[in-house]
Write a structure and sequence with these properties.
By secondary structure, this protein is mainly β. The protein contains 1 helix and 3 strands; from the N terminus they run βββα. The protein is elongated, with a radius of gyration of 10 Å.
Length: 47
C-alpha cells in the first residue's frame, strides 16, 4: 500500500492519497481545490 500526504490549499491542510502497488489504483482524500494539480503530479508529497 502507498500512502502519500500532500499539503494543499491556502491553509496547507493535508490531503492523503492511498494506492495499491499491484493494481495501480488509488483514492484521494480531501483534495481541497487542488484536484487538477494533484492528478497532474505538480504537488510534491511527504511519504
Amino acid at each position: 500500500m502507498i500512502h502519500a500526504i500532500l499539503p494543499v490549499g491556502l491553509l496547507q491542510c493535508n490531503c492523503s492519497i492511498f494506492g495499491d502497488e499491484q493494481t495501480h489504483t488509488a483514492i484521494v482524500v480531501d483534495p481541497g481545490d487542488n484536484i487538477p494539480d494533484i492528478l497532474a503530479g505538480r504537488i510534491s508529497c511527504a511519504r
